[in-house]
Design brief:
Elements lengths: L4 H16 L4 H27 L9 E2 L4 E3 L4 E2 L5 E6 L6 E8 L9 E2 L6 E2 L4 E4 L6 E4 L5 E4 L10 E5 L5 E6 L5 E6 L7 E2 L4 E5 L5 E2 L2 E5 L2 E11 L8 E5 L2 E5 L22 E5 L5 E6 L8 E5 L5 E7 L4 E8 L14 E3 L7 E3 L3 E3 L2 H5 L7 E3 L15 H6 L1 E10 L5 E3 L4 H10 L5 E5 L3 E5 L6 E3 L5 E8 L10 H4 L16 E2 L1 E6 L2 E5 L2 E2 L7
Parallel strand pairs: 26-34
Antiparallel strand pairs: 1-11, 2-8, 3-4, 4-5, 5-6, 5-7, 8-9, 9-10, 11-12, 12-13, 14-23, 15-16, 15-22, 17-18, 18-19, 19-20, 21-22, 23-24, 24-25, 26-27, 28-29, 30-34, 30-35, 30-37, 31-33, 32-33, 32-35, 36-39, 37-38
């Protein structure tokens, strides 16, 4: 084959350079081979980016063709949360969970396969190509957990871990809009992160709830769970032990739960009551004033709600709040019409005008039967002839009891002001007590007064109905307020003065007698 003049000149120059030792033919071949390999790697990486090959794990996204195997993690875009496989201390089971990245894992914030742990490290988390669900399978490709969505309009879905710790399954619609289909925030485990929610569908009664672990080694469903009370009885959050009430938050006053005085502190007060567009779903969520400090609220296996905050200076998690804390925080410790005070000994006392139902049991520390009224209300005796006209005209009285966790089973009464609230209760002989609370309004009780607690600080004022005869020979309310179960600390200025109301009934015209009195605190 005849060579072109230019090719002959190129070979002549190459031979001349080789003869001088400036070019090594073997080295030149090696460099060319290396360049070809680099080009091949770049091509593979480019293709990998386009087809999302599993070997190229995205940071915060699980896509259709991408698998997350045991040992790999998904990290939110800002590096705040991490999703991966874990085993609780002392457990051989493997679970998929979400936790704060880069911090000691004191508590996992969310667990997917709580009821079906994986055995071994062959689990795979992926998008199911046939139906678009996020699914966790074992080594036999059997599903142990799934988002379990049906009739998806598209199987082109992705799962994204957000910087709030929310795992979201979503798809892109024709307008290139991201449409969420499922969120872990709507399916809590035993913990609540800021913006996670618990609540109630008022139409179906379905609860969005958190449930405790069985124990520290077992994330499966434990005995304790949250429940949101029907708003017809004023919104409250309960902790249930099975079907029994374990703890009650007290009524919601649009800022906090009035049965948890520590929530009045700005640091802890971030709860909000939210609703969906249809007004059918009511749920509580919380957000702190600053997101710089990681925080977590969770159930322990004994039914306590614990709030943990990360202390960057101490470089450790701190428990900043625990409820229930004392025996009085537990539901209805002292029975009907019994008031509980953690600082008293014994902790239970009957309300003024009431006495133990079973005195022997009460003296032995069994307070569950509670207390009963000593005398009928005056309104109940109006038709009897045993009482004088003068006694009947005196009517019933309302005794103000301060610093209280208001009873369960309250009813909301639409009234214009506190005076109207009081009048309404007075006119209804079945009304046992009332309270008027900022943010709520008028509450009345027509059943037994259940789950009463007296706080050292905080709490609300409860007005208890008494027969006038219960004043005894002392008509000055000073002697009543010195009763042990009505004592409050002098350091609490709002409790230093009270209004005592004695109502007289004459021809259905009610007159109010007001008397300001001093208040004293006696130590045992």
């Amino acid at each position: 084959m005849t060579m072109l003049p230019s090719e002959m000149q190129h070979l002549a120059r190459r031979d001349a350079l080789e003869s001088t030792g400036l070019i090594n033919p073997d080295l030149s071949y090696s460099m060319a081979s290396t360049i070809r390999k680099l080009i091949a790697v770049l091509v593979i990486l480019s293709l990998c980016h386009l087809i999302m090959n599993p070997i190229c794990l995205a940071i915060d996204i699980i896509s259709m063709n991408q698998q997350v195997i045991d040992g790999e993690t998904v990290v939110s875009a800002g590096g705040i949360f991490e999703l991966g496989f874990f085993s609780p201390n002392g457990s051989i089971g493997r679970y998929v969970g979400i936790w704060y990245k880069g911090l000691p894992v004191e508590k996992v914030a969310w667990v997917a396969n709580r009821e079906r742990p994986l055995i071994g490290s062959n689990g795979v988390l992926m998008i199911n190509a046939s139906n678009g669900n996020l699914v966790l399978v074992d080594d036999k490709n059997v599903s142990v957990w799934s988002t379990r969505l049906v009739n998806l309009i598209s199987n082109n879905t992705v799962a994204v871990l957000t910087d709030q710790g929310n795992l979201i399954l979503r798809y892109q619609n024709k307008l290139n809009e991201s449409v969420p289909l499922w969120e872990s925030f709507n399916h809590p485990s035993d913990a609540l992160l800021p913006r996670m929610k618990i609540g109630l569908n008022t139409r179906t009664g379905e609860q969005i709830l958190a449930t405790s672990w069985k124990d520290d080694k077992d994330p499966s469903l434990g005995s304790f769970r949250t429940a949101v009370m029907d708003p017809q009885e004023l919104l409250q959050v309960l902790i249930l032990n099975g079907s029994l009430k374990h703890f009650r938050s007290g009524q919601w006053n649009r800022r906090n739960f009035i049965g948890v005085p520590s929530m009045t502190k700005d640091y802890h007060n971030g709860f909000q009551l939210l609703t969906d567009n249809n007004g059918e779903e009511l749920y509580f969520s919380y957000a702190l004033h600053s997101y710089s400090a990681p925080t977590l609220i969770y159930f322990d296996s004994y039914g306590a709600i614990i709030q943990m905050d990360w202390d960057a200076k101490e470089n450790k998690w701190l428990r900043v709040q625990v409820v229930p804390k004392g025996k009085c925080d537990l539901y209805n410790t002292c029975g009907p019409f019994g008031s509980c005070n953690n600082n008293d000994s014994p902790i239970c006392n009957c309300l003024k005008g009431y006495e133990p139902k079973y005195i022997d049991e009460w003296n032995k520390g069994n307070w569950t039967s509670g207390c009963v009224r000593k005398a009928q209300f005056q309104c109940e005796e109006m038709t009897t002839s045993a009482n004088s006209d003068d006694e009947r005209k005196r009517g019933d009285v309302f005794l103000p009891v301060s610093g209280m966790k208001l009873p369960d089973f309250s009813h909301y009464l639409l009234t214009w002001d506190k005076m109207e609230c009081e009048n309404s209760c007075l006119k209804n002989c079945s009304c046992l007590a009332y309270a008027y609370v900022d943010g709520i309004g008028c509450m009345i009780w027509g059943k037994e007064l259940i789950d009463l607690q007296e706080f050292y600080r905080g709490g609300e004022q409860l007005y208890i109905r008494l027969a006038h005869s219960q004043l005894g020979r002392y008509t000055n309310p000073m002697f009543l307020l010195l009763s042990k179960n009505l004592v409050a600390p002098v350091s609490d200025p709002p409790k230093m003065r009270y209004r005592w109301r004695i109502w007289h009934s004459t021809d259905n015209i009610f007159e109010e007698s007001k008397q300001h009195i001093p208040f004293y605190y006696y130590l045992d």
